[in-house]
Design a protein that fits this description.
heterodimer; A: mainly alpha; 70% helix; B: mainly alpha; 9 helices
Chain lengths: 185, 224
């Protein structure tokens, strides 16, 4: 996957200290980790599931799961990277069972869900893309978000989702075709 | 031999940098003389550019911390060291308790599968559980796409569990394996019953129940 924003050394040391305190049971420290990572986790959940309400639930679940598993975090990667992986696994796991049960997509038309404090691109163009991504079929959306937005490779996506590399490639191709149609390009 | 169709089909991989150097050269050579492929490549690169610049952070519309904080249990009960010798017995006991539940549940399911052969009233599902719709004339066929998803989930969870196997106490592993065998037998019997009565919605739902049990059990095992 793409490298997440690298922290400068002093921030890394400070972050390690906060993680250590959280591992010792300090909920205030964990809340600090939550504040620092909330928007990143929410953006990922929102794009993967395409629904603002579900994304909020997933985001909460991610942090609860992170708290439960904090004891196994060894600091071999950045905390944000570890958290990112938890979020991906959680949403992929939830979407699998939901796909089995409901076989439907709840795509959001609520573009306010995608409002961001940082927006380096044309807002209209970006929101068109966000909306089109949200309306993709679940499998295609998952692969597009992980591959083209988050920078995961097909092999990683296949491993995490329990599917074949060829299936991931087919889903990505499908997602791009559908986005082209949706965006009128 | 490089053809227009073969290049067009590989443009996804080309713009994603996933071709070998030889393949890239072949695609580049084709692009020089093919306007359609160049237009496709330009569009793909434009899409990737837009996707790459989507904001990494989006703020949720409402406050979420209180919902998280309410679910945080004291750390001393939740930390699971990599080799928690002191926790082996409680975890084994938990697994054993789960085994008892699963044996009972699986036996009941098996009895229903074998005993009713799908002719009884349709089972009432929990209100929060929507199964794939059973199509009149072929509940078995209607269930197949869902079954594929179950199998994918099980394959992934099993792979994850394999990587964590050495973290589990031997008693826990043995219990898990015993339960998986029971569940697999229930799946086998459910499928056999469905093949004999492919229109039975009840059997389809029972099969989904058993798959749910297996997925949930694997999920719990991964979290041990």
């Amino acid at each position: 996957m793409a490298t997440l924003l690298a922290d400068p050394p002093e921030r890394t040391a400070a972050a390690a200290s906060v993680v250590r305190r959280a591992q010792e049971g300090d909920t205030a420290a964990f809340e600090q980790l939550y504040r620092e990572n909330l928007n990143r986790v929410y953006a990922l959940c929102l794009r993967l599931c395409g629904d603002a309400v579900k994304a909020e639930e997933h985001t909460q679940d991610v942090f609860v799961r992170a708290w439960e598993r904090l004891g196994s975090f060894e600091g071999k990667s950045a905390f944000s990277t570890w958290l990112h992986r938890i979020a991906v696994n959680l949403v992929l796991g939830e979407r699998r069972s939901e796909g089995v049960r409901a076989m439907k997509v709840f795509a959001t038309d609520d573009l306010e869900a995608y409002e961001s404090p940082v927006n380096p691109r044309d807002p209209g163009e970006r929101l068109d893309l966000e909306r089109a991504i949200a309306k993709l079929p679940p499998g295609a959306r998952k692969v597009f978000v992980l591959h083209d937005v988050e920078g995961y490779r097909h092999e990683e996506i296949a491993r995490m989702s329990g599917s074949a590399v060829g299936t991931c490639k087919a889903q990505l191709h499908r997602a791009r075709r559908l986005l082209r149609e949706a965006l009128g390009l | 031999m490089t053809t227009h169709a073969s290049v067009f089909a590989r443009l996804d991989d080309y713009v994603g940098g996933e071709l070998s150097e030889g393949e890239r050269r072949a695609v580049r050579a084709h692009l020089e003389g093919c306007g359609e492929c160049r237009a496709e490549e330009a569009w793909l690169r434009s899409l990737l550019d837009q996707a790459r610049f989507l904001p990494r952070e989006v703020a949720p519309a409402r406050e979420l911390w209180s919902g998280v904080a309410a679910r945080l249990e004291p750390r001393d009960e939740k930390v699971i060291p990599l080799r928690p010798r002191s926790l082996q017995l409680p975890r084994w006991m938990l697994a054993a308790a789960a085994a008892v539940v699963l044996v009972v549940a699986s036996s009941a399911i098996t009895a229903r599968v074998v005993g009713t052969a799908g002719r009884g009233p349709v089972a009432v599902l929990p209100s929060n559980t929507a199964r794939p719709a059973a199509v009149e004339g072929s509940a078995l066929a209607a269930f197949r796409p869902g079954e594929v998803e179950y199998e994918k989930a099980i394959a992934e969870l099993t792979a994850v569990l394999q990587t964590q196997r050495d973290r589990l106490a031997p008693e826990t592993v043995a219990t898990l394996e015993a339960n998986l065998r029971i569940i697999d037998e229930a799946i086998r019997q459910s499928k056999a019953a469905l093949r004999a009565d492919p229109n039975s919605r009840e059997l389809t739902q029972m099969l989904a129940d058993v798959y749910d049990t297996k997925v949930e059990m694997l999920q719990r095992a991964v979290q041990l």
